[in-house]
Request: fold
Amino acid sequence: MNCRSCSKRQLNRKLSLHRTLAESDAYTMLIKHRLMLLRHAKSARPYGVPDRERPLAGRGRKAASDIGAYMMREGLVPDLILVSPARRALETLRLVRDWLPGDIPCRRSADVYEASGLGILDVIRAVGSGALTLLIIGHNPGMANAASLIVAGGEPKAVKDMREKFPTAGLAVIELALGWNDVVEGSGYLERFITPKAVAPE
Reply:
């Protein structure tokens, strides 16, 4: 028997079961990893400034800080952060990290900048072992498309809202029963989808 074919069939069977579980409440009993996809906060568009150097707008700075405060309150603390090298993503990271423990490893990833949804999946699969909770700070349409590709089930309203609009500083929290290298389309459960408007102090 071809070992490679056998291994592929075993993975396909595992993924089939995983997709079924991702649509059920029993899924939460098998959680192995948590993926958090955060779109950078609202940016400004100064005349003549290259796309990669665009800074956050005032509204964006507030939204990034509000999301960081929410993450800390809810215990959404990553073990590893991957961030686009674009200025607006790095500024979002800085404002979020103000609320989080200071010793979280962080890597700039050029592969996150202008990545497609499938490109984000490739970034996730390359993470390796060690981190149980991963935060990626990137851009649309890649972040929205990656979240839609990965999510197979979840709280119905959260899934609907996420698929309809993934706004700046939107945060998708996705639970996975597979290792990072096994993440594929339809392998995740949307635990929550948070927008700055939902968590802004009144």
In short: The longest helix spans residues 3-22. The CA atoms of residues 154 and 160 lie 10 Å apart.
